[in-house]
C-alpha cells in the first residue's frame, strides 16, 4: 500500500484530547487508513504524519471530514536509513 507524508500547520498549536484521538482512530479503521507515526515540531504548530492509504484523495477527505489541516500531502516511495 502507498505511504504518504501529511504536513499540517496549526495556528494555535496542537492540543488533542483523548476523545479526538479516539474519533480519528475510528475514522481511520473504518476507511482502512493506517497511521504509522507522527512528528510534532517543538513549538507544537506543525505535525508531519506518515500514513498508509490507497491514494492521496483518501487523505484529503480524511482531513476535510475531521476538520484537520493538510497543507502538504506527498507520496513517499522509499525510506532511507
Task: Give a description of the structure.
A hairpin with a 5-residue loop joins strand 2 (about 35-40) and strand 3. The longest helix is centred in the first third of the chain and has 13 residues, at about 20-30. The two termini are about 20 Å apart. The chain has about 80 residues and is of the alpha+beta class. It is built from 2 helices and 4 strands, in the order E-H-E-E-H-E. The chain has a 4-stranded antiparallel β-sheet with strand order 2-3-1-4, with helices on one face. It is globular and about 30 Å long. Helix content is about 30%, strand content about 30%.
Give me a quick take on this structure.
It is built from two helices and four strands; from the N terminus they run βαββαβ. By secondary structure, it is of the alpha+beta class.
Structural features:
single chain; 81 residues; alpha+beta; 2 helices; 30% helix
